[in-house]
Amino acid sequence: MNFSIYQMDVIVANPDQNRHKIANWVKKQINHKQVDTIVLPEMWNTGYALDQLEELADDEGRQTIPFLSELAEKYNVNIIGGSVANRKKDGIFNSSFVFNRCGELIYQYDKIHLVPMLDEPKYLQGGNVKAEIFQLDGIKIGLIICYDLRFPEITRSLALQGAEVICVLAQWPASRKEHWIYLQHARAIENQCFIISANSSGTCNGTAFAGESMVIDPSGKLVTKGPAEQETTINTMINLNKVAETRQAIPIFSSRVPHLYGGGNSDA
Ligand SMILES: O=C(O)CCC(=O)C(=O)O
């Protein structure tokens, strides 16, 4: 599967311009390369304009869903749609939407873990539905959003459901770049799956984002990554055989003893 990752410099507090930017970028990718699946970063509609979300958030995905669905269908491409600030009846959530090549919405997820250091709990509601895997072109994929990366339980749960690829959609700050890098390697190694991340670049209200969106293989090896702090596109093709090979070479899923430390049954 060929992935095209948008390490996007999100325009703060301007959903219309960000949609325009994404539409142009998708068109450019499709015209130049064979792309199966597009991956976008976190909160690309508003950026981290948290104190303006009341005014700027989407409503029940009414702007985001048709926008991404039409792009997916028009260009016959899967879209892992990053996330957007999204108002529902219980408040504003950080919601991700996934579309297949026919433009069908096949999965949605609300970021579960809210970031205290950014005051997210003041402005956002945490998701209250379990993260599940979904399939695109027959590949089992899971996704998490930014701060979720710090909680190994959620990626382990996706791996136990059979995820071969876990996408990390983020606006991770440059000030904690080491954590961004090491945690992704750890999640790949411990779950023996590909990690594909889309981080943002640029700044918001004085916070610089880390960039360095990356692809890590199931053995923890870096396949490719973007530059720090600069908008870019990362194109990569992943070989899914690597997942089975790695799980066969070091069979951690059959070595687990979950009754001694918790955790679910394994489909991996
Ligand atoms: O955990 C971190 O250090 C950063 C998390 C974050 O920026 C986010 O979830 O948006």
UniProtKB/TrEMBL annotation:
Belongs to the carbon-nitrogen hydrolase superfamily. NIT1/NIT2 family. Pfam families: CN_hydrolase. One of its GO terms (molecular function) is hydrolase activity. Residues 1-240 form the CN hydrolase domain. It comes from Gracilibacillus xinjiangensis. Gene3D superfamilies: Carbon-nitrogen hydrolase. This is Carbon-nitrogen family hydrolase. SUPFAM superfamilies: Carbon-nitrogen hydrolase (SSF56317). Keywords: Hydrolase. InterPro entries: C-N_Hydrolase (IPR003010), C-N_Hydrolase_sf (IPR036526), UPF0012_CS (IPR001110).
